[in-house]
UniProtKB/TrEMBL annotation:
BP terms from Gene Ontology: tRNA queuosine(34) biosynthetic process
This protein's name: Queuine tRNA-ribosyltransferase
Keywords: Glycosyltransferase, Metal-binding, Queuosine biosynthesis, Transferase, tRNA processing, Zinc
Known EC number: 2.4.2.29
Enzyme class per UniProt: transferase
One GO cellular component, as annotated: cytosol
Domain of life the protein comes from: Bacteria
Organism: Anaerobium acetethylicum
Self-association and partners: Homodimer. Within each dimer, one monomer is responsible for RNA recognition and catalysis, while the other monomer binds to the replacement base PreQ1.
UniProt-annotated stretches for the region RNA binding: 252-258
Similarity remark: Belongs to the queuine tRNA-ribosyltransferase family.
Length: 374
């Protein structure tokens, strides 16, 4: 159940009550594709850096180690030692990114494993079954993420099929949640709005899926090649047609600036690989913009990455030491940068929630964006 606590303009401050605890929104979900955050970050670290939700991937866990194995081991929470909410994405985006290996039909998608080339079929029912085996808190509906750009005809046909798939997902999830051997009988289902940059297709789709009374609604198929301005335009046009009393999730987005802009347009769930991917390459986020820790100017710099940051990295290690680790290709360097970045994102979401509660979101957003440009 989602409680909308307050709004500041369109910015929402809410709580999603789940079987694995309450999610305070707006929230950034830390991406652990294969049940681990890349960069040697353990779930015990996540507790320390303000992580509320961990996101894992249906397709990747189905391929390895296998969702049936995870079920035998008690589900994803037990498998990875994480007691807070987990969202699993449906595999739909992997189908999009594996375009050279797949064939889309009405029944579902035929494709080959990126690991061993083995033939795999995934449709709405299979995606729900895999996610039920993983026993995540929130399951995402199986959809097609259309390419950008796509013709209007392709987009309309794709969105219509995604709607039919969503109906099948909902039916299958109801069936699975009623089975005696299902680990999480309270698994939630989020539907996904598609339509590329065609706002009329987006709006019509948003209206159709809103009638289905799902646990939450995502906007998919953005941040796949269109400009930031186009993405913001689509959010401006589409979000008002999604239920305000349900969570709204912008999938795969984004930079800190993207998040600040999307919160302003009524979005309250986010995920992105940027903080961990950039961290593994020595790029770290601060309130004064991004820093490249490989830079020679940090060689004798005994300050932490950010003197105002309370993350485990900034509390204990200097820029000079982190630069040395990265230059020496020592894994600890990567790990410390990823921990800092994830903390930065999680902490920014906490600041956002406070600003909305206090009715000063516009002022906060403006100051934060100006800081990034210093």
């Amino acid at each position: 159940m989602y409680n909308l606590l307050t709004q500041d303009g369109k910015a929402k401050r809410g709580e999603l009550h789940t079987v694995h605890g309450v999610i305070q929104t707006p929230v950034f979900m830390n991406v652990g594709t294969i049940a681990a955050i890349k960069g040697a970050v353990a779930t015990t670290d996540l507790q320390e850096i303000k992580t509320q939700v961990q996101l894992s991937n249906t397709y990747h866990l189905h391929v390895r180690p296998g969702d049936k194995i995870v079920k035998k081991l008690g589900g994803l929470h037990k498998f990875m030692n994480w007691d807070k909410p987990i969202l699993t994405d449906s595999g739909g985006f992997q189908v999009f990114s594996l375009s050279g290996l797949r064939k889309i039909k009405e029944e579902g998608v035929y494709f080959r494993s990126h690991i061993d080339g083995k033939k795999i079929f995934m449709g709405p029912e299979e995606s729900m079954q895999i996610q039920s085996n993983l026993a995540s808190t929130i399951a995402m509906a199986f959809d097609e993420c259309p390419p950008h750009p796509a013709t209007r005809e392709y987009m309309q046909a794709s969105v219509d099929r995604t709607t039919r798939w969503l109906e099948r997902c909902k039916k299958e999830m109801d069936r699975l949640n009623a089975l005696p051997d299902t680990i999480n009988k309270n698994q939630m289902l989020f539907g996904i709005n598609q339509g590329g940059t065609y706002e009329d297709i987006r709006i019509e789709h948003a209206k159709r899926i809103s009638e289905m009374d799902l646990d939450g609604y995502a906007l998919g198929g953005l941040a796949v090649g269109e400009s930031h301005e186009e993405m913001y335009r689509i959010l401006d046009e589409t979000v008002p047609y999604l239920p305000v009393d349900k969570p709204t999730y912008l999938m795969g987005v984004g930079t800190p600036a993207n998040i600040l802009e999307a919160v302003d347009r009524g979005v309250d769930f986010f995920d992105c690989v940027y903080p961990s991917r950039n961290g593994r390459h020595g790029h770290v986020y601060t309130d004064h913009g991004k820093m490249n820790m490989f830079n020679a100017k940090y060689e004798l710099d005994s300050r932490p990455i950010d003197e105002n940051c309370q993350c485990p990295t900034c509390r204990s290690y200097s820029r000079a030491y982190i630069r040395h680790l990265l230059k020496a290709k020592e894994m600890l360097g990567m790990r410390l940068c990823v921990l800092h970045n994830l903390y930065f994102y999680n902490n920014m979401m906490e600041e956002i929630r406070n600003a909305i509660e206090e009715g000063r979101y516009q002022e906060y957003k403006k100051a934060k964006l100006e800081g990034f440009q210093l």
